[in-house]
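Continuing from the previous page...

OK, I double-checked the sequence for Deoxyribose-phosphate aldolase against my notes and this is the correct one:
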Amino acid sequence: MTLTRARLAQSIDHTLLKPEATPADIAALIREAEELGVYSVCVSPSRLPVTAPEKMKVATVCGFPSGAHHSHIKAAEAALAVSTGADEVDMVLNLSFVMEHEFEAVESDIRAVRDAVPGAVLKVILETAVLSDHQITQCCLAAERAGADFVKTSTGFHPAGGASVHAVEIMAAAVGGRLGIKASGGIRDTETALAMIAAGATRLGCSASADVLSGL
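Thanks. Re-ran it with the corrected sequence; updated structure tokens here:
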């Protein structure tokens, strides 16, 4: 299947998570998202509810950006976000658990959010730039066991970096098509976006969505 501009647009979560973003900035994001024909807009939970076109999904984040929040807090944050209009929740897992290879705790943390928002699409942010291939694989498997819908590379806020083709390939091998894969962080042009899709990404998180689509 040829990846047209319209098809690529429908893989994009058009994102604005800067803490200084104002209501006017969010309104501009939504107008641009409608013009570009993207799949969703992703905003901070405190900016909900937002008024988006009927067919456009609304995503938000949870435990963002550190992931170090208590599981109960993440669950409550996710539930509140869904109650105020979020269709999808991108949660950050607890990296401390990963560093200690406590993957049962990783799974439990994810499951707490999954149980809080059973009707929403749940994406789990791994922060792959700080993880080994083994840790990425184990986090993907923990997310699958916990009932997540997607695994996601990055917050885009970690100093170690964002998405990489290699990380997406490791994630794709781990989930084998059973979960979606979202590449996010540093995707600012068409070439990078297409490389992520070729590696196995099924969704892209982009703030520079217009630039990403301009090459098609």
